[in-house]
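Bug #77: duplicate submission created two jobs. Keeping one. Sequence:
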Amino acid sequence: MAGLHTHPSKRIFVTGGEDHTVRLWDMDSRKQTSMRTLDCPVNSVCISLDGSHIACGQEDGRLVVLKLKTMRPHLERKDRKKGINEVRYSANGKFLAAAGDDAQILVYDVLSDYEWIGTCVGHKGPVTSVDWSSDSKLLQSDDTLGHHLYWDV
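Kept job's structure:
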């Protein structure tokens, strides 16, 4: 398992793995309820604030967004050549950040069907984690070289 994220309001969580799968789990029964196999390893997963989508960052640089209820693809984007290490929805649910091995963070507008709206450039090594402020105006990130950066979004 490479990625794990809990639903914002239900007792379920999603995992992504090197076996190319995205799996949905029920916390109470401790059982898998659904699964989708993608084309390559899944490094990170995140459930949208409204609980309708699962964003998946893949090792080949693809961003796949699945519909949570059906586990069918909503969209797929290939905006980079290197892997995506982490995907994270903003606290207000309007943005999605995708951090990658290319030392960049791509930001998407969720309400405009995941239209790319900007890139955060400044890391020297692969970006390993991202986190949004509670007002969704700031993004913080870490890379493999130990740098911790802040971004106005």
